[in-house]
Amino acid sequence: LIVGFYHILVLILALNLIKNRQDLKYLFYSLASSAVLIGGQLIYQVYHLGGFFTQFIPERTSIITPVGPWVTVSAIIVFMVPVAYGLGLFNFKNNRALAILFFAAAIFSALSSTVTLGKSELIALVVGITFFSYQYFNNLDAHYFDRNRLAKIIIGIAILFVGVGFVFSPFIQGFTDRFKQTLHDKNTKFRVRELQLAFSAVKDNFFTGVGAGNLKVYFRNNGLCQCYSEASNYFTHFLGELGIMGLLLFTAGGHSLMKALRSFKGLNLSKSDWLVLLSFKTSLIIFLVNGFFEATIVGLNYGIVFWMMIGALLAFERITLTATLQKI
Questions:
Q1: Helix %, strand %, coil % of the chain (to 5)
Q2: Quick one: pLDDT at residue 142?
Q3: Which of 74, 158, 169, 307 is deepest in the core (most CB within 10 A)?
Q4: DSSP string for 4-34
């Protein structure tokens, strides 16, 4: 409940502090910078534990940064990557140096999130960036983006990835071996057992739930002794802890977000506004995909970033609609 209170405060602050597009620009710049800083902390921690130049893969529970444990940090980074990616595309025509800087920030952040070997974050990131790229290039104005320069950028990124793969090949080999064991490793078995117990909690307490914050207690009382985290799925988490009321609240929140996104339909958005909206949509898709495997939204640190973005989206809706009405 205390964590939820802080999240509501962040939402209210974002709604009230973001009053124009300049404020939104400052927020996006700070989010992109934060993704790089957090990614740097993550990489340093893995390096400090002996990773990268050998096949040794650090135990993920030992990867802890000032922002939080590995699962929280990786989820926060992939949630913010679309912002850096969008800023790179936004500045590409008028400020190539700044655009390259943001592209580098997006690549660095994305790569840093993979060192935790978080499968759900990697899947969510791939889905999100694929969606972003498809939407962008499918709606591309041929006069807005130089396709020859785009080809050079793609080739440059490919060379960069090959170089990184060559330098850190032992670590990547260890990463690949671990990924091959996904369906059989102890973490997957733990997640399956956790999900089974979550469904059991829902079945036994469908209307009332086990109470806010008590799902992890239910897990430990039913044999999952090492469980100190939330459920691995936001549906089972809210339904398990708050019962049918939790599911209704979650559904109502999702409906409000969809309503906010639909309000942009039919508006004659500028290219910059369209890119901002696309960045919001991509981050929400990453949140949804990641949330099928991890209920990180209930964590304090992840929730702060998430609700800040939701507040920014609602503020952007207000700014855009107000500007549209003033033109009428």
A1: 75, 0, 25
A2: 43
A3: 74
A4: HHHHHHHHHHHHHH--SHHHHHHHHHHHHHH
User: Which residues, listed in sequence order, are joined to residue 65 by a DSSP beta bridge?
Assistant: 68
Q: Report the distance separating Cα 280 and Cα 83, nearest Å.
A: 8
Q: How far is CA 73 from CA 56, 85, 190, 210, 232, in A?
A: 21, 19, 21, 28, 16
Name the pTM for this structure.
Answer: 0.82
Provide the pLDDT for residue 61. 64
- The per-residue pLDDT for 273 is 87
Enter the DSSP assignment of 263: T
Residue type, 152: K
Give the DSSP letter of residue 62.
Answer: G
Q: Which residues of the chain have pLDDT under 50?
A: 142-144
DSSP lists the bridge partners of residue 64 as 69
How many of the other CB atoms lie within 10 Å of CB of 76? 27
Which spans in 70-139 are helix H? 70-91, 96-114, 119-138
pLDDT of residue 118: 72
| Backbone torsions φ then ψ of 236, nearest 5 degrees | -70, -30
Phi and psi (nearest 5°) for 115?
-70, -15
Q: Is 315 exposed, middle or buried (0-12, 13-18, 19+ CB in 10 A)?
A: buried
pLDDT at 261: 86
Per-residue pLDDT of 117-135, as tens digits, reads 677 888 888 898 889 888 8
**Mean pLDDT, rounded, of the chain:** 78
